[in-house]
Fold this sequence. Notes:
Blueprint: H1 5-16, E1 22-27, H2 31-39, E2 44-50, E3 53-54, E4 63-67, H3 82-95, E5 104-108, E6 111-115, H4 123-126
Helix pairs in contact: 1-2
Amino acid sequence: xxxxxxxxxxxxxxxxxxxxxxxxxxxxxxxxxxxxxxxxxxxxxxxxxxxxxxxxxxxxxxxxxxxxxxxxxxxxxxxxxxxxxxxxxxxxxxxxxxxxxxxxxxxxxxxxxxxxxxxxxxxxxxxx
Length: 128
């Protein structure tokens, strides 16, 4: 339990602070989430978004965490299509465990990434 979403974002930022790598963040994205990660001491790298949300293929190799809004992205209200959600879950599975509500961490092509996917958004992923 936290004191709210902003507090939860700061706590997540603290969990990853001091680790090797950066946080991939939607650009443009929710500025208060970016600020919470930066205040916790993380490097934040913007990843371009288009009409379909974050460009998953543009996630920088040095990122260890991916912050993405799958539905109603701020400020564009874009919704990540099913294929991009699958691509993101596939990336998480290559890196480590991808379970709803649990952080997965590992190495892919010499990069460390942590991801908390929403398996309910892609039901097939929950059954893999």
